[in-house]
């Protein structure tokens, strides 16, 4: 896990709540190398809109497979 998780009692990333506030119910994509199931659960519980949280391997960066996932329409 990345160093930015410190201080989150439930294991979510420090960015998660801020991104959900910024999205304000709008659909959004979040691409990061530190996204976990805790982030996915929190977004599902606190964001009424569509969202895709996509974890990228920091050793390889974005790959063709990642771009294929990101090109798909967001589902409700």
Automatic annotation (TrEMBL):
Reading the lineage from the top rank, the first entry is Bacteria
The protein, known as: Uncharacterized protein
Q: Which organism is it from?
A: Actinoplanes auranticolor
């Amino acid at each position: 896990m990345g160093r930015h998780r410190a201080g989150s009692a439930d294991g979510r990333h420090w960015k998660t709540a801020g991104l959900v506030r910024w999205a304000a119910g709008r659909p959004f994509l979040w691409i990061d190398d530190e996204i976990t199931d805790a982030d996915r659960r929190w977004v599902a519980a606190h964001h009424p809109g569509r969202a895709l949280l996509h974890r990228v391997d920091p050793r390889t960066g974005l790959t063709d497979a990642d771009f294929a996932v990101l090109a798909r329409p967001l589902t409700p």
